Amino acid sequence: MHRIEQGEGRQLTEESRTSLRRSLIDPSGYRLELGKEWALQHLTAADKLTPVLFQMRWRTIGAAQGFFITSDDPVVRWVEPKTWHPIYGDHGYLNKTAVVTFPLTPKVMLAMSWEDEGANAFAGRQGVDRLNRLRALQADEYLYAHLDHEVIRRMAVATKGSRPRMTTEGFGPKKFAATTLRRGRANRPS
């Protein structure tokens, strides 16, 4: 409090002191929210992820029927749910059932996996719909398609807000401020 008073050049009222003490003892009234851009700047994941992706088997998937969509978060990783560990999670990209997809065009998608499934493949209507739905579920805010299509519009409405927000709980004192990693774009000052 002494530093605050020196920094601001004024005396705190007793009411301000009480309020400040209360907030330091019980920070649960605050919510700390970090933008994903900030979080990614402080991770060195790319240096570790690049060799992992390079070791995976790469192939293309063509859309025999329909078309692929993309989103504002176009890389999608899927793993077999049976391989998830309750404490250690799914082991990310190192999980041997991991399949990573990235749409290249409306008719071609890149797929990376640990299994050698051949050079190229084609997906029928159901396969294309499943891949599009996974991408929609993982989108931060936006879906993109090369044309205005009612099915994509309905998918966007159905999956809006479905992506779970990352939270951190259980650290620090019992009354700790909630911390979340915002999945959407950070608001930029005008």
Quick gist of this model?
With 190 residues, the chain is an alpha+beta fold.
List the helices and strands and how they pair.
Blueprint (H helix, E strand, L loop, with lengths): L1 H7 L5 H12 L5 E5 H6 L3 H11 L1 E7 L6 E2 L4 E3 L20 E5 L4 E6 L6 E4 L1 H14 L4 E2 L5 H10 L6 E3 L9 E5 L8
Parallel strand pairs: 1-10, 2-7
Antiparallel strand pairs: 2-6, 3-8, 4-5, 5-6, 9-10
Largest sheet: 5 strands, mixed
Q: Which range does the strand content fall in?
A: 15-25%
Q: Which range best describes the helical content: under 10%, 10-25%, 25-40%, 40-55%, 55-70% or over 70%?
A: 25-40%
Summing up helix and strand content along with how strands pair, one would put the structural category as: alpha+beta
Describe the structure.
The chain is an alpha+beta fold. The protein is 32% helix and 22% strand. The chain has a five-stranded mixed β-sheet. The chain is elongated. The two termini are 33 Å apart. The model is unreliable at 166-172 (pLDDT under 50).
